[in-house]
Amino acid sequence: xxxxxxxxxxxxxxxxxxxxxxxxxxxxxxxxxxxxxxxxxxxxxxxxxx
Length: 50
Known about the structure:
The structure is a single chain. By secondary structure, this protein is mainly alpha-helical. The protein has one domain. The protein contains two helices and no strands. The model has no long low-confidence stretch (mean pLDDT 82).
């Protein structure tokens, strides 16, 4: 998923070159954890943006 994000974002947004690669990678990890929690823990709600 990270490779797909890079392919789509870098070509359209030059600001992507100005930020560390760690930020988008961590965002994808957080999204993954949110969906895993949503699907496995009954009390968890659907993930939403901050």
